[in-house]
Specification:
Length: about 240
């Protein structure tokens, strides 16, 4: 940090004093003094003074983007440090509230803006992870993973990426298992249908044979009746005996 500050001071002083020595333009002592005080305030841990002095420098020369960056850092330093302490304690909502309030004072501060985005994502992280844990199908797991990856895009770390990659491996494994179960179910259903079809055919064949037997028996009965001839008639002799 000290080296970075030294380089900035050197480059800034060169800009203020100019590169063309042949003109012998006297250096702007007031500006140089302001720059020195600005960096002294940074090194002494006085962010309020550094912000005030930095803004004065930037107003004098708006091409000094590095000064603008340092101003943002000084504006946000204490807030971000305190927010990190709350975050380390698991108090995400309080950390977010702290950053949000700081943005009301420094609405153009990019450091605070980025911090707010990160904290807003982290506030929903638990919801994303619970959804991933509760997902039971490959489709549900894939959807939950995609939501988490998008929702935590500003907090992407190697550890988070590994977790997402491992989860994707599980999604692929479950997809294959579900596909196999579906195929097995289709094959089982097809086999059951074929079995039922065969059983229906067997019953139909038995019915046909049964009807044929009935028809055969009926034909034989009729033939037996025809071959039997007339039924013998016994006269009633009761009247003759009277």
């Amino acid at each position: 940090m000290d080296r970075y500050i030294t380089l900035i001071i050197t480059s800034f002083l060169l800009i203020l004093t100019g590169c063309k020595q042949e003109k012998h333009t006297p250096p702007p002592v007031e500006r140089i003094s302001l720059v020195v005080r600005f960096f002294d305030s940074i090194q002494n841990g006085d962010p309020e003074a550094a912000v005030r002095q930095g803004k004065n420098i930037f107003n004098l020369d708006r091409s000094q983007n590095h000064v603008s960056t340092l101003i943002s850092i000084q504006e946000s330093n204490e807030t971000v440090v305190n927010a990190q302490k709350l975050l380390d304690s698991g108090k995400v909502s309080l950390a977010l509230s702290l950053i949000t309030n700081a943005l009301k004072t420094y609405p153009e501060n990019n450091v605070l803006r980025r911090s707010k985005i990160k904290l807003e994502e982290l506030k929903n992280a638990q919801k994303y992870l619970v959804a991933m844990t509760r997902a039971r199908t490959a489709a549900a797991m894939s959807s939950a993973r995609e939501t988490a990856e998008i929702g935590l895009s500003s907090n992407k770390t190697d550890k988070l990426q590994k977790f997402l990659d491992d989860y994707e491996t599980r999604v692929q494994e479950l997809t294959k298992l579900e596909q196999k179960k579906t195929q097995d179910s289709l094959e089982a259903a097809s086999a059951a249908a074929e079995k039922a079809k065969a059983e229906d055919a067997r019953r139909e064949a038995e019915n046909i044979r049964f009807m044929q037997e009935i028809e055969k028996m009926s034909g034989e009965g009729e033939k037996m009746r025809q071959n039997a001839g007339e039924i013998p008639f016994e006269p009633d002799n009761t009247s003759e005996n009277k």
